[in-house]
Amino acid sequence: MKTLVKIFFALHLAWGAGLGMSWAHDLPTDVKALTLARVVDQKLVLMMHVPMAAVMREVDWPLHGPYLDLNRSEGATRQAAQLWLVDPLQARMGGQSLPPARLTHARISWPSDTSFQSWEGAHRHLTETAPLSDRDLVPQHQYLDARMVMELPTEDAELELNFHLDRLGLRVQHELRIRTEQGKERLLLLTGPSTWVNLNPGVATSLNNFVMLGVEHILSGFDHLLFIGGLLLGAARLGQLIWTLTGFTVAHSLTLAMAALGWVPERLWFAPAVEWLIALSVLWVSIDVALWSERERRARWAMAMGLIHGLGLSAALREALPMAGEHHALALVGFNLGVELGQLALCLWVWPVLKWLRTQPRFEVMRWILCLAIAHIAWHWGEDRWAALVPFVSTIAWLDWVGEWLHSIWFWLLWLAVVVWATWRRVTPH
């Protein structure tokens, strides 16, 4: 019996030690990394700041218990910087791969260190400040800082980097600050899978990237697609559809330009308010098309709705605008062009189908069912987006009351619309 107890305790201790070891090398959930980049004298200089918890794996750190022995950690620090930051880095210029970067400095820093708030501070921190020593610290709570240099064959060609930092954690947010020759900074926030980043995009690259971004955004924006789909259902003639979409296009191009120039509010309530209004616009077009299939004035209010949709599209544009480098105006033109190409592709695909459906005897019934489905989806969007907006307007009593009132009667309003439409169809001569 005593032997069994000893075996049990031995296994328990081994299991606990294993857990402790795995804890020390677990993949972190959220990782925030920072990189400062600058081209100096035909050299690319990168300074990186990442949590130590993300680089503890695959490195033999000198530990005594849970603490790191700083006096013996220089080799492990350089090994971690080389393994996790330098080796994964890929660079190409003019489409040609460049030689690997060279690690010049690596050190461990306190989380409270503010050196990386500026390029000059980070450079002094890495090249002039003495490293930490003679202290016991928990490595998972510290940061690894590294400086690396890459030789460039020329400064004229476009330089692209792929950091591959997604290996550091389950969710990695990489803040990349690019110092231009004029001393300005471009800030890029990189999330998700690793991708190539162009540090100095040219005219053609910026235009192409933002055209593709506009196409992708309009085709992946389900609310925008449903709005255009409602306009398609309500257009009996191709000329009418073109006129309506032209008004919609002009309007959202205007607000896109305003957003790109920073002429729209940046308050926290603005984005959820715009998203809620977009949901209401989709609801409106579905009801309008269901009740008045060939309304001549639809182009006018489609233009008004376009102003709102442009504000919604602007969020994606503003987020990606630093990717354009110095070509912000060109990026705006390219994004607008991409959005229009996406809309045109949708119309060219759907219009022949609708034209054939209009020849079918039950088209009016199908159109009504489709409009009702769009209205149902849009209302649920409105509910969800109103919930995100409520914290900002809850102090305004009447707005909160209106929201609750609409929430309680929306179902009956839809059925009332059905009854009104059916009655109107019966009394109207055909």
Mean pLDDT: 82
Q: Order of strands across the widest beta sheet?
A: 7-9-2-1-11-12
Helical residue percent band: 40-55%
The value of Rg in angstroms is 29 Å
Which band does the percent of strand residues land in?
Answer: 15-25%
Compute the separation of the termini in Å. Answer: 96 Å
Q: Given the C-alpha coordinates, what overall shape results?
A: elongated
How many beta strands in the DSSP annotation? 13
Largest sheet: 6 strands, mixed
Task: Report the total helices.
Answer: 11
Structural class: alpha+beta
Q: What is the element string, with H for helices and E for strands? A: HEEEEHEEEHEEEEEEHHHHHHHH
- Stretches where pLDDT is under 50 for at least 5 consecutive residues are 1-24
Total number of distinct structural domains: 2
Task: Describe the protein in words.
The protein is an alpha+beta fold and about 425 residues long. It has 2 domains: about 25-200; about 205-425, no CATH class. The protein has 11 helices and 13 strands. It has helices spanning about 1-25, 75-85, 120-125, 205-220, 220-235, 240-260, 270-290, 300-320, 330-355, 365-395, 395-425; strands spanning about 30-40, 45-50, 65, 65-70, 90-95, 95, 100-110, 135, 145-150, 160, 170-180, 185-190, 195-200. The strands form 3 sheets. The chain has a 6-stranded mixed beta sheet, with helices on both faces. Strand 3 and strand 4 form a beta hairpin. The longest helix is centred in the C-terminal third of the chain and has 31 residues, at about 365-395. The chain is elongated, with a radius of gyration of 29 Å. The chain starts with a helix and ends with a helix.
